[in-house]
């Protein structure tokens, strides 16, 4: 089965370094755990760390630039983005990389159905065409909440779609883009998908777009690092990423979910063959300070040199015992 991904070289070297590791993990895990035919739309130079990673895993590379790049810049003007998101530096190459997925229906001419995936994932289990229900147009998972309800939005990070039918919808999206119409829900490409395809989007099983903050799941096919990127910070993890994200996804203060969340970060760094316990520990401290600011005992633990194995090795049991038996 074909799985398309899109990579566009950013003007920011720090971001490029972080995302090259995301690409490394996604391709490494795809090769180890699946038989997917990976095809990458690539906008960048021949000599670049992205190219090194792609060549390492022998994926098919299609040199590509988003077909409506100029319309993108005219619609999402620098002034609009600065005013709306308080961004001083606008990297249109990076934004265009997210829009390149719209060109896939016009590139793919052989298969009826294809899978699209962002690069910030771990492919955890074998994925074949018969793993999916053959959707009429497109299937996508929920943005942040597992219990999808009316009014929620779909996440565009993993998409399974009918190529021919999706081509029709993308033409509508391109028409909006050319006419300067900005989506009213969500952001950029995801906003257009939610608006134009709203009545035709089917719910993708959660296991194909499993978010780490939902906790550990042995049945997950694709782990999608939606939100903070492993090893990164808010500024490098998305156009609209902020601490408000953590308040939302961990609003129930579910310690088992936090434990699974941290375990997936450990898995990620294992795929890279590197130890980044320092970043995991720092990120853990940040999350717990945000969630439990009133708890003095927890603040003392967070500020101490808590060993990482207490974080991702039975973390929830550790905190349970600490709170209820250690006082």
From TrEMBL:
Q: GO molecular function of the protein, one example?
A: glycosyltransferase activity
What InterPro entries does the annotation carry? Glyco_trans_8 (IPR002495), Nucleotide-diphossugar_trans (IPR029044)
Q: Which residues form a coiled coil?
A: none
Identify the keywords attached in UniProt to this record, alphabetized.
Answer: Transferase
The keyword Transferase belongs to this UniProt entry's keyword annotation: yes
Superkingdom of the organism of origin: Bacteria
Pfam families reported for this sequence: Glyco_transf_8 (PF01501)
This protein is called Glycosyl transferase family 8
